[in-house]
User: Fold Tetratricopeptide repeat protein from Eiseniibacteriota bacterium.
Amino acid sequence: APMRFSFVADHFAYLAGIGVIALVVEGAAGWWARPAGGPRARAALAALAALLALLGLLTWKQTRIYLDVEDLYRHTIRHYPESHLARVNLAAILRRHGEIDEARGHYERVLLDWPDWPWTRARALTGLGNLEQQAGRLEEAERLFREAAELTPVAPEPGYNHANALLLQGRYEEALGEYERVLVLLPGHAQARYNLGYALEQLGRFADAQGHYARVTREKPGFALGWTGLARMEQRRGQPEKAIDHYRRARQLDPGSSGILMGEMEALLQAGRRGEGLAIAQTLAGGGAPDPALAFEVARRLRAAGEHADAVRALRGALVARPGDRRLRMLLAEQLAAAPDDAVRDGEEALGLALALRDEIGADDPGLLAVLGVAYAEAGRFGEASAVLRRGEDLARRSGLEDLLPTLVERREAVDAGRGWRLPRRGEQR
Assistant:
């Protein structure tokens, strides 16, 4: 089996060395047993001490190879450049350290050196796919994962990675089939089953999704995400108290997860337990230097729950630490322009934020124009609001942003009717 990985290895010398060792030791023992005087014994001891010192030095030198696994792989590659096992494993370490170019070079060398070894090529292709996925090039990652899966159809990992790449692209129907194939090979793969449930959830097949989440929690009760999936299903069924219990079970298993805390916050607000929910929001969005992406998500969910004043507070708190963050500023501008509560709205501040963003990123962003339009309207400048929103509609159509178009049309119709556009109040649906 070792010959599959390397034609040379230190331990291949162990068995062959027995004969040499036996010969040397027998000769030395015979020589030592011969009668001799004091000088000869001293010379022998001196020679033995020198030999032991030399062997000790060589041993110490050899141990430098094993300082850590990265040194071991580099040493292996220096002595055997075609070692695909060392290159693939070293590349995985380099990827985790952010040394992307060197990692890519090792994967590409493996593909060059081992063109006819499916399992070896599949590992290298999977590694390259991970690099592409990490860089956000999802289509290329999916292509590489698919090729790896085709090379080794009985191996679950390439197919699992392929399914994940499809999931990240929103290609849920295609992802379903890939996850099902993985689960035929590994029925107990908790993450694959959870991801299958998530894909079903995104397709609106909630009963099927719940079945998979429930199976995950039965088979792997220590897998936190399974409980979050069940919690989302309970929220959808209008059972927030049950959802809270599931989220808290998940939080016990993974206390550092902000996603679990955010789900619990939503369920508490849904259950009318505002004080507890807002306390979690403060925990998530507060702190000395909050993560802007996390603060944005907290504010977005607060406003979805109708907690507009608290959404504004969360955004302002995050902007103290990250004053230049554009997503936070854009969401704050929209909140100030369109919150249903008079005490929360401030048209002039909203317009100032939106105009500053327009100066920074230009006037060709339909998403920004959707915010700028409602800010103009809240400031009483309805003509400019209508013109901006119409321009946003035109840009969205030309850019293929069909999902944004209904939002722009709805806002422009409100403005053309002479009223500001408003976000929903607590408990309202839109």
